[in-house]
Amino acid sequence: MSQKNLFDNTETAFVLKSDSELERAYFLFKMISNEPLVRIGTAVTNFAIKAHLPVQGLIRATVFDHFCGGVSEQDCMPVVDKMYTKKVCSVLDYSVEGKEEEAQFDAVLKKTIDLLEFADEKDAMPFGVFKPTGLGRFLIWQKKTEGTSLTEEEEKEWNRIEERFDIVCKKAYDCDVALLIDGEESWMQDAADELVAKMMRKYNKDKAIIYNTLQLYRHDRLAYLQQLHEEARVYDFKIGVKIVRGAYMEKENERAKEKGYPTPICKDKQHTDQNFDMTMEYIFQNIKDISVFIGTHNEESSYKAMQLMKQFHIPKDDFRVWFGQLYGMSDHISFNQATKGYNVAKYLPFGPVRDVMPYLIRRAEENTSVAGQTSRELNLLSQEKKRRKL
Questions:
Q1: Residue 267 burial (CB count, 10 A)
Q2: How many whole angstroms separate alpha carbon 237 and alpha carbon 208?
Q3: How far apart are CA 275 and CA 281, in angstroms?
Q4: In angstroms, rounded to a whole number, what is the distance separating the alpha carbons of residues 227 and 343?
Q5: Burial classification of residue 360, based on how many CB atoms lie within 10 Å of its CB (0-12 exposed, 13-18 middle, 19 or more buried)
Q6: Taking Cα atoms as reference points, which of 207, 176, 177, 172 lies closest to residue 288?
Q7: Pick from 135, 88, 83, 84: which is nearest to 109 by CA?
Q8: What is the pTM of this model?
Q9: pLDDT digits 0-9 by tens, 120-178
Q10: Would you say 25 and 17 are in contact if contact means Cβ atoms under 8 Å apart?
Q11: Which 3 state secondary structure label does DSSP give 347?
Q12: For 72-102, how does the pLDDT look when each residue is reduced to its tens digit (9 = 90+)?
């Protein structure tokens, strides 16, 4: 099979799915492909959860079990172990969003440390992950980014955020488990970039342990990486980056319009794709300084990355290059790449059903907006159903 149709192999893609799981996946993507249905479904689900209606069982048996690993890290282990038999690793992602209180931030800190210790014991789990706003209020990040002065109380809050960051990054360093720090909205991101770079200077002396996230629908991110690279040369540290297209496009464009500043988002999908591929090329040219986690569901970019690795004589299993997709999506990319010997990891969200719902709703809405993606998933699932019947 030539490289160009590597992702068409549905037998490899869905090797771990039972017939009933295949049917469920087909049903879910069929639902997601219908935009009005997604809108109604998310509204009804939100209402049902807020009203404490007994819908958790139904959610768990359908959308939750398809896109999430379980309600706790132990609950995820059967999924982690099963995927690892096919050389697909897992990144356990505690997907509880939008907390506002210090006690909750301390709880996320503890959970992230527990997960790093957990990952330290398992070859199947090479990464930890967290969101900056998991460790401190969005407003504080925003004020730091905007350069607004903080009150005395807020200064203390910011110091606690820095402290939590350092505790987590030191833990990752001690466990020798790489740590992916997610990207968020542009109006809080500068403060996060600055703090993550500080952690890289401290902990990425010999290799990349701390990874920042570049959302490449932002047209300024390649320039940012080049500037970080200059800094890395001066201070002699390695860079870790996760590259993704980005998750907050509508929000970014709406806010830019409302506040009257130029949007940070590329003008169209084509420019975003170009930005993504150019950034990837820059990274591969500088692989001795930059390690990368390529988070993409885009087949063209995945082929392009494999081609660039060949061009720059980078071995398929080089520890500095990882490919990643979300659990429940793009199995045709993950499992087919893994069989060819590339490093592949699935982001495996988990957490209490009601707490993970905002994450799941965002997934459904994102999928709806990427029409080609959903129809490709449906097409492959239906091919596999036919293949099994034969």
A1: 9
A2: 8
A3: 10
A4: 28
A5: buried
A6: 207
A7: 135
A8: 0.94
A9: 999 999 999 999 999 999 999 999 999 999 999 999 999 999 999 999 999 999 999 99
A10: yes
A11: strand
A12: 999 999 999 999 999 999 999 997 766 789 9
